[in-house]
Amino acid sequence: MNKGEAKKSNKLLIGGFMLSIFLAGVLSFYASSSHDGLVKVAGEIGFIDSAKDHSFGSGPLANYGIKGVENQRLSTGLAGVIGITATGLISYGLFYVVRRKNGVEK
Where are the domains of the chain? Predict the structure, then answer.
């Protein structure tokens, strides 16, 4: 890959990341109020009473928000941004390791 192609590729990646941050941080608040399809179906079918909280149910990012942030819009947006950023960093790290393992240099 030459420098021109690398620059275009980097711009595309940065643009995609910024779009993802916008979608997760701003537009996610306007998503469906029934965002957990399993809970909705469990209520419709009638087995919601047997549901148990999972082991991360009291975690800092439980229920599509940030624990301790009272503003629901801000809480949802920040949780989305944290999720996108974590996913991006983990993916970058994995791709970097795979690229180095296969002998591909930048």
Answer: 3-51+63-101
